[in-house]
Amino acid sequence: MKIKHILLAVLAVIVAAGGSIGYSYQAERTPEYALAQLMDGVKSRDYDTVRRYADVDNLITTTYDESTKILADDIVNLNKTYPQDWFFRHDTAFMQQYIAERRSDDMVFIQRVLELYMDPEITPISRMDGQAKWIADEMTKFGDSYDVSVRSVQTDGTRAMAVVDIKGKDTDYGRLVPQLTLKVDMEQQDDGHWQAVHIANTAEAFYPVVKGIEDYWTLQGWQ
User: What is the C-alpha R_g of the chain?
Assistant: First the structure.
């Protein structure tokens, strides 16, 4: 299967877009409005809207870099926690080199996953496309199994912090990560609209997501 640290990088971001947003907003140029538009854009597979209200490239890059750094730095603990998983049977130096060698290809792959998720009518034309299409289809299953609500939004000038609660439904996929909280950094753009730009608590979300992925492999019957 495609290496796990890709899913570590994207799962937390994508799952958050799976449900309807439980927050009222009062004006177009507010973080709350941007979050609602972002969620609606994902649900309707409108990539232009998603890109307007989320800095997709920065979200992918920073979440990938932060999560894979944790993966490399904490590989010994991960091996102790999941001794059955061959992926964690390495040391930090090996993982750092491994991630560095794959990073550029992984960025391309993640972008392709999102393209195939946003447009299910695209026909895969390569082996990489086939792998990306499989993950995109799995993302749909995850999205159907989670509800999302915004707990709070704190605005300070042109910056804001949104606290987003993700709750799994009582399904096989929803039970993988029963509850997760994401803190989303947002920035106001020159024309006044807001964008989600960064997941601020990647380290906090890392281990619940890793456990969910490990349980996912078990659910699929993979060892």
Answer: 17
Q: What is the maximum span of the chain, computed from C-alpha positions, in angstroms?
A: 51
- What ranges make up the beta strands (E) of the chain? 146-156, 159-168, 179-188, 194-199
Residue keyed to tokens 């994207």: 10
Contact call for residues 196 and 59 (beta carbons, < 8 A): yes
Q: Phi/psi at 24 (nearest 5 deg)?
A: -90, 150
**Which residue type occupies 87?**
F
Nearest-angstrom CA–CA distance, 79 and 148: 31
Residue 16 or 93, more confident = 93
145 SS3 class: coil
User: What integer pLDDT is reported at residue 39 of this predicted model?
Assistant: 85
- The count of C-alpha atoms lying within 13 angstroms of the C-alpha of 36, restricted to the half-sphere facing its C-beta, is 13
Judged by DSSP in three states, 54 sits in strand
205 and 12 Cβ atoms separated by less than 8 Å: yes
List, for residues 27-57, the tens digit of each pLDDT value.
778 999 999 898 888 888 899 999 999 999 9
DSSP state of 91: -
